[in-house]
Amino acid sequence: MFLNQLNITPASKAREIVELDYRTATVFDDYGITYCCGIQRPLEEICASHQVNVDNLIAALQKAIRPSSISAQTAFVNWPVEFLIDYIVNIHHHYLNETLPGLSEGLIVFTNEHKNKFPAINELNAVFQKFATANPAHLIHEEENIFPYLRQVAHAYQDEDTSSFAPLLIKTLRKPLAVFMEQDHQILQDSILQFRQLTNNYEPLSGICPSHKVLLAKLRELDNDMVQHFHLENDILIPKVIRMEQELLQRNN
Length: 253
Description:
The protein has helices at residues 14-20, 24-30, 43-50, 54-64, 81-114, 120-158, 166-173, 177-199, 210-251. It is mainly α. The protein is elongated and about 75 Å long.
């Protein structure tokens, strides 16, 4: 459930806000404001004790809850290769680079504090840390090796003046795109499946604390982002470039 922006007032309480929209938890963390357990006071009182401007805090909370999802009707399949690559890097790669470190740290803290109460959290933490450690190298490999080649193929496909050199380019620089898609992506997809299994599809148990709910919500958000990320690369971008490769090679036979 997400908040309407007008619902946040100086009289609102941190825990209630986070219960309604998990995205506000990051704002409270940034301001050093506890939202989990203990006596809950109005934002106005908390801000006074933390020497924080309550209007600035509310503005930051409202910014955090603005709708940010892209329309399901977006015709990604019609986007040019280079534009689609830019979108993947600027949206999905940026999201992972920004999100994984904080989520990793938060999961470690939560595991240390609650591993006796939630036995599965140890395995979840182990799987997640492996995922978070492997991801940066995967993104770098895409940005420095795979994507430049995809751009070159797309450019050769569109430019008649250079298309005669395309077979040489492909034979010299060709990347095993199908293997990359099946092997590298499968490892990451397997991790996502384990996240779902270990959290019962991110479903919070009754009576758990807000910090646990926030953790599950952030994992669900990561899952949703990765599903879209994989779809763009596996179902649209890479198959499109493979078709371009094949057509360029046939043009000059």
